User: Which sequence fits this backbone?
């Protein structure tokens, strides 16, 4: 089950949260090639974050997946999630990091 945890210092209301969850689910499922029914997104808004000594809008993500990740996929996912965060929360892509965990079964 691909799971994306997103933390941001931007407060998020219910409407924006719903939009981000829907958009991120679709993007993740499409890019990794797994059904949306397997994708879990967690969004944590209003988290205290300082990035480069500034408290301007920023975000951090962790993506855990059993297979499906590689450098090409990771780049596409980073770009897609950064676009969603910039559009919905005004988090500049230069103020967003994502860490990938490709879990091996066995």
Assistant:
């Amino acid at each position: 089950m691909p799971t994306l945890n997103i933390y941001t210092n931007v407060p998020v209301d219910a409407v924006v949260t719903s939009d981000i969850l829907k958009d991120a689910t679709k993007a993740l499922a499409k890019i990794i090639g797994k059904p949306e029914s397997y994708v879990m997104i967690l969004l944590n808004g209003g988290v205290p974050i300082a990035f480069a000594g500034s408290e301007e809008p920023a975000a951090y993500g962790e993506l855990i997946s059993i297979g499906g990740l590689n450098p090409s996929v990771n780049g596409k996912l980073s770009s897609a999630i950064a676009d969603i965060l910039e559009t919905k929360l005004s988090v500049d892509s230069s103020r967003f990091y994502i860490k990938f965990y490709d879990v091996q079964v066995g």
